[in-house]
Amino acid sequence: MSTLLLAGGISLVFSLFFTPVFVRLFRRIGWGQFIRDDEANDHHWKKGTPTMGGIVIVLAVVVGFFLANWITDSSIALSPLLVLFLMVGLGVVGFIDDFIKTHKQRSLGLNGWWKIVGQVVIATAFALMSISFPNSNGLTPASTHVSIVRDTGLDFLALGKVLGIVLFCVWIILIVTATTNAVNLADGLDGLASGSSIFAIGAFVIINFWQFNQSCFSRTIDADVLYKCYEVRDPLDLAIISATIVGALIGFLWWNTSPAQIFMGDTGSMALGGALAALAILSQTELLLILIGGLFVFDTASVLIQRGYFKLSGGKRVFLMSPIHHHFEVKGWAEVTVVVRFWIIAGLCVAAGVGTFYLEWLSR
């Protein structure tokens, strides 16, 4: 518990006090945001605002996690390292995208297909590592079962080892790419993605800590609820890395809220999407992520609906602009009003997700 609080506190302090340093650095080297001519409402005043703030978030998480574990002399488990692998790996893909945008001063960065290739390669490596290296209890960091609140009876390996591993990798790739791009789409208004991610990733602090208290391998679990236990590997360590990310986001949001002094860029949104996907996979709550990340699903659905209807209707639109947060801007809502109301939606989705998780435990 002390490591969890310390890791979250260190990452918060790091991002809170070092973000202004990076703002000045990014201004000096010219890493400023490029704004398209068709950007919603009056966003052109944001042109030149330092971007790639995701670098600060990732650094804060790495420093907070490892420093807290060093101070408390705690051993580092594999599961949080896999979260960091996916977070940093996808952050690098986002950084390349951001760097091309700022270097060439255009809204298009890394080619879309190359971005997908980067996501697929990193997600595949994560998938293979997550079902390797069993611990003394025979548990690997991830399970090859499809999971909702915990593992279901659907096991990819039931189809054969080779085919099962291939299908499992495809499943993980779908989760990672969908989550990463969903968070990326929500990163369009000051503080929207960072604030919503605090809610979503914060949910896994609660979920993983509860899984730790109700672990099948805990010596303190009551015998009368042993049948409800969770076979999740390293749940406390997953709670620690979740708290570390939340701390980094809270510190960053201080500077990212409207009017933002720095944007997270694709570096941050893709890193956060990777972290969110990794936490859901490793805590065996993959499909529950649809509820926990409901705000991101909502935003992504609006884009799919807009594009689908546009093609089918020959140029007509459902929304004034997509993603849907821009629709409300065009309707005249102030940016801060849109952001706060979307935070409320994000919080309600997380409450529904965590509530579903706990109700499943009560109902067993």
How is this structure best described in words?
The protein has twelve helices and two strands, in the order ααααββαααααααα. The protein has 364 residues and is an all-alpha fold. The mean pLDDT is 91. The two termini are 27 Å apart. Helix 3 runs parallel beside helix 7, helix 3 (78-104) runs antiparallel to helix 8 and helix 4 packs across helix 5 (161-186). It has a two-stranded antiparallel sheet. The chain has helices at 2-29, 54-71, 78-104, 112-130, 161-186, 192-213, 235-256, 265-282, 289-292, 294-312, 324-330, 335-363; strands spanning 145-147, 151-155. It has one domain (2-293). A hairpin with a 3-residue loop joins strand 1 and strand 2. The radius of gyration is 20 Å and the shape is globular. The longest helix is centred in the last third of the chain and has 29 residues, at 335-363.
